[in-house]
Amino acid sequence: NPAPWLEMIRLNPDGSRSVEPAKPGENGQWSLCPDRAGSQNYNVHFIKLPIELSAAEGKEAAIIDPNGLLYVVHEEEEAVRADNSKKFPLVVRTNVYDCVDWTLTSEWLDDDITNFQSSKINTHFHFLQFDNQASDGVISGFSYEQSMRPFTQFKKDVKKGLPVPMNAKVTKAAKKGDKTISVSNAEQYHVGIPVLIGADNVKGQEVQRIVKIEKGKLTLAQPLRNAHPVDDIVTVEYVRQRFWADADVGSVFWHDHAFGGTTWPHGAVGTIITEPFGSTWHDPKTGKPIRTGPIADIHATERVGHDVAGSFRELMVHIQDTVPHTVNIVTAGNPPGQPVDVALEAGRTVSFIMPPNDKIKMTPMPFLNGGTHTTGGALNFRAEPFAQRLANNPDTSKLFSSAVHGDPSTPMIRAYLGDAMVFRLLDVTMNESNVFTISGHTFWSERYAQEANRKHSLHVGIAERYDLVVAEAGGPRHQPGDYLLFNGRSSKFSEGSWSIIRVLDKPTSDLQPLPNKAYGKEGVPEKLPVCPGDAPVKNFNVVAIDYPGMNLNPNAPEAIEVDFERKIELRNPNAKIFVLEDEVAKVSGDVQAMPLTIRVNVGDCLKVKLTNKMKEGRASFSAFGMAFDPNDSQGVNLGNNSGEQTVAPGESRVYTFYADPFNGEGQMLVWDWGNVAMNPRNGLFAGIIIGPKGSTYRDPKTGEDVSLKNSWTADVIVDQTIQGNESRANYRDVALFFQDEDNIIGTAFMPYVQNVAGLTAINYRAEPYPYREEVGCTLGRMFQPCEVDNPKDPVTPVIEAHAGDPVRVHVFGASSEQNGMFTVEKHEWPIEPFLPGADIISTVEFAASEGLDVFLPGAGGKWSLPGDYTYGNGRLPYSQSGQWGYLRVLPTTDQRILPLSGAAASTKQAALDEFNGEPRIIPTVAK
Questions:
Q1: In 39-53, which positions are buried (b, 16+ CB within 10 angstroms) versus exposed (e)?
Q2: Residue 845 backbone phi and psi in degrees, to 5
Q3: Cα 3 to the chain's mean position, in Å?
Q4: What's the pTM?
Q5: Phi, psi at residue 492, to the nearest 5°?
Q6: How many CB atoms lie within 10 A of CB 160?
Q7: Does the pLDDT at position 717 exceed 70?
Q8: Residue ranges of the domains in the chain?
Q9: Confidence bin at 349 (pLDDT 50/70/90)
Q10: pLDDT category of residue 905 using cuts at 50, 70 and 90
Q11: CATH class of residue range 537-890
């Protein structure tokens, strides 16, 4: 009984006790599934099979896990085994208000490698309504046994582990309607128990209760509903579970909870997606109904998000780490002279079965620091590793080109212009935090919170899930082409966790149109100009240069040794940076560069002329969260897009972006894609800040207009004459760029390390604890001047504001291997600055390729108290390595910075910032 506590009554038409789950509503108000609930039935098998994670390319062999483990729907098992394109972690669907009946069996035989001659599996669901006594999957407390042994195992060759499961075979064909059945080893069973007959019979599986046992025969309580041939399998090794999808909870994670440590890295995870009420699910290529798979067209009439009601394209994105067959070798930060083979052998465990050493490639990101290898990454148990592609063609500027390498092996979603898309995001395995980033499109992290910030990148933790709704494929300017989807964490990206969003503007025979599209639109909309003709234009001349003099702390030594002979690096002779053309001479002298930060307003057209003045290597400029033509200004030579989007040394090109009102205010991280594996780590990143319509930007100290300058800090002077801005206050605005490259801190590598190594910085600067200890700081005075008679600020950025000033901090994961935690001492802010009633927090996670909008209501905290407050990375090892600085709150009369009050915008631009005819919401903290 899948719901023994809630659904005790289960009767046959004649009043006898049934072995089937209760009918919806049969138990009255106790029923798990109410009367007239819809029905979904899944008969799921757990199987072992080889899985090709990445296809062969050129001289590079395919990446294959010979010990792949998948849940499959029984009727699709044969097709899955025969076709690698169907070998994904299982994704099934249900609609809101459906009753889901789930029968689970296993074909995973005992072995010495992964289950210690004790194979058992189950399925543990994270959401939906269920009776936890028998449908939770986890066997805890007084819950019933909910795991099973393989029904296909009939003997054991070794005398260890668990005994042979209670399986039998039909010895004489049985007809439909028979009440007796001849089986081998009938005496092992007990009267009164329900057995599964035809466990491997796609058309004839059924559960029957035993009422009598004779030699070789079982007498059943009810006549057989199906015929059963000789060798049909009879077993008690099965579990039935029942769930009710009572609400639109979106993506629901489920996984094995018996041997998860060894099964998850091989694919033993899955998802059930709760779709809108009344939906039907279809193959995007043929339009035929489907039951499984990560890609589907959902034909619907109900809402899936605030701005989408109707049909949509769907991609279930399984973000994975701890995938042994995509690991890369790491050498930085390891003992000098340690042989690679010796190091790799130390990383092999029962739960992490890596391929032979000669099949493991060196990481294309050699700066990754610590550990013998990366942990392996994938999307939906597929990968498209940088190392394999670069081995075939070393041109890093063509790394993502389908013309050069073909399309990636990872799942690709396709859509027509204007189609709604839903990315069901789930971090399914298993040890680390990750990040999901897409280009050219935005979403709300909470799909019904229409007053929140729109984002294009989002950090995601273990077992965390989001349902990310993109209103229109091609973005608000309806631009067709290929867009990038990727995990921005350095190692995971390079291991192959990326794919393509392909947006088409012309009908094709292998992509069916969506019926009942959002907003009632039909057909494919017209492509719009990237920038409207009346949009204000801002032009910036940007140069990419080598910057070998980058010094993260001029007062400190070049490197500081921490644990296990690893070092904090404070010089980067390989540095490269973006600067404005008129700044080149300045940063080439004694002035330490800041990351390029340029500002535009909502509704502005941004044109960036990039000149590559590096000695070697191509460069590009990207702004993934803005509107652009992916065939011209994505900055990446991606997929089937036309044209060359990178710039050779000595050459220039113009990139065009639009700060579309649909996307609102925020921040965009800029990366170079001429060599994305190396250049962002070396400093070739920047930021674009999008402020309120009509705003101007001034230097907080001099009052100089920096609207067309590079400035990490600025005062935002809001034009209150523009409708919608009347009550908005001026505010301080700063950009902080965090970078790190430690591969080992906080992971399962042994022995555990306590310190971060490699480059760790904020805005090309670092203030490590060990250095400060050397110059006199004690641990108790780490954030105070080390020399009382010679006080010095840390070299990291000092944010200055008057007490009570609103301060907007744009936090970028500029180039990071691990997720960080941004925090400001004694300050709190709403997690969503545009959302009334948002949770108030004091620390927030951020990741590589992500930008956060931290809007402090008032400098000095609740009581507007002047003083120095620390900000930085709340993960202590990162703070120790130098990721911290001061928020300096000055008395309101202090003249070191200009007051915000009384300042007025010097220019007036454009009209009301609107979307769908309604003014955008003023940030709560800015009122």
A1: ebebbbbbbbbebbb
A2: -75, 150
A3: 34
A4: 0.95
A5: -70, -40
A6: 10
A7: yes
A8: 1-28+37-164+240-275, 166-236, 280-528, 537-890
A9: confident
A10: low
A11: mainly beta
Q: Percentage of the chain with pLDDT > 70? A: 97
**What's the chain's length in residues?**
927
List, in order, residues 6 or more apart from 250 with CB less than 8 Å away.
Answer: 273, 274, 424, 447, 465, 466, 467
| Across 769-791, average pLDDT | 89
Give me the chain's average pLDDT, please: 94
Residue type, 848: A
Least confident stretch, 379-393, 572-586, 671-685, 776-790: 776-790
User: In CATH, what class is 166-236?
Assistant: mainly beta
- CA distances to 118, 264, 272, 750 from 137, rounded to whole Å, are 18, 15, 15, 31
Among 799, 862, 876, 797, smallest CA distance to 827 is for: 862
Confidence (pLDDT) at 788: 78
The predicted pLDDT at position 904 comes to: 66
Q: Within the chain, how many helices (H) and strands (E) appear?
A: 9, 56
Give the chain's radius of gyration (CA, Å). Answer: 30
Q: Are 17 and 10 in contact (CB under 8 A)?
A: yes
Q: Is the pLDDT of residue 927 over 80?
A: no
Q: Which CATH number fits domain 1-28+37-164+240-275: 3.40.50.261, 2.60.40.420, 3.40.50.10170, 3.40.50.720?
A: 2.60.40.420
Cα 369 to the chain's mean position, in Å? 23
Instruction: Give the model confidence (pLDDT) of 737-762 as tens digits.
Output: 999 999 999 887 777 899 999 999 99
* Percent of the chain whose pLDDT exceeds 90: 87
- pLDDT for res 309: 92
| DSSP E strands, 359-440 | 361-362, 377-379, 413-416, 421-429, 434-438
The whole-angstrom separation of Cα 684 and Cα 669 is 11
How many CA within 13 A on the CB side of residue 76?
Answer: 22
Q: Which CATH superfamily is domain 280-528 in?
A: Cupredoxins -  blue copper proteins (2.60.40.420)
Average pLDDT of 498-513? Answer: 97
Question: Residues 6 or more apart from 323 whose CB is under 8 A from it?
Answer: 53, 265, 375, 376, 377, 378, 381, 383, 429, 495
**Rounded-to-integer distance, Cα 153 and Cα 165, Å:** 7
* Residue 428 CA, distance from chain mean position: 10
User: Do the two domains 280-528 and 537-890 of this chain adopt the same fold?
Assistant: yes
Strands (E), 583-661: 596-601, 605-612, 652-658
How far apart, in whole angstroms, are the C-alpha atoms of residue 888 and residue 891? 10
Name 523's Cβ contacts closer than 8 Å, sequence gap at least 6. 513
CA atoms within 13 A on the CB side of 721: 8
Stretch (H or E) spanning 876: helix 876-880
